Amino acid sequence: MPQLPAPDYPADVRARLEADAKEVIARYPDSRSALLPLLHLVQAEEGHVTRTGVRFCAELLGLTTAEVTAVSTFYSMYRRKPSGDYQVGVCTNTLCAVMGGDAIYDALKDHLDIGHGETTGDGKVTLEHIECNAACDFAPVVMVNWEFFDNQTVESATQLVDDLRAGQQVAPTRGAPLCTYKETARILAGFPDERPGAVEATGGAGHASLIGLKLAKGETAPGRVVTQRGGPPQDSAPETGLSANDAPQRTSASDPEHPAEPVTGQRHEAGTAPRSGSAPQETSASDPAHPAGPAAEEGE
Ligand code: FES
To answer: What's the pTM?
Structure first.
């Protein structure tokens, strides 16, 4: 039977956390709005949201412990039990899954001998499935304490967790250098990341994202070396990594009753249909009831 009410922090810890909490609360016109950062703050103290942390948040914000508990159990970024210094999250949403995320998760589960939400015996690594982190252009993605490790393989992800357990320095593919879960939680609570160069390192988009942006803006995507069956290589711009299939296509091209003119003059070999989302699409062209025309193009 748990103690009621939950035990408080030791006096010195309480005084330190109260000072931090008041700084956070002062940023909001309504103190209740500070609940999410305060949950990160107490998570930074103990590595997870304890009953003591819930009591602290409730007292500082004038809420009930039931209200604080309801919020902390809703969001997956708050942990309810002790866990490792490094949260290794493998994205197993659709795109990452088919690009290797499922295989990576299964391999790490076997290699570490733990399941979802479980922690290695040395307290270093907690393994988790994670949802899409909007980094699909770098699939399959593994995140450690919410820093990106892009384009992973079973081998690279296995090496990653081995290095983390061995205390080796590991560097995310992009973004700020890695820090421990508690340190990450304090940054998420709204306190500045004071490590030299850390803030600057978070700027800018990755190469793959910038290619997508160019396509979305309607810029022509240069091709890369395309080898026709039985023919020599044609057309090259190898630095882009784009294939001939990445160029803009009219959606009506897939409608046999409304064939579209080729936009680029390219032809696709069987089995190499353009990927959805590769480029801007004239969606109205695929609707027989509302064929695309000059008025539509003018924003009718
Ligand atoms: S599906 Fe993995 S980052 Fe989007």
So the answer is: 0.68
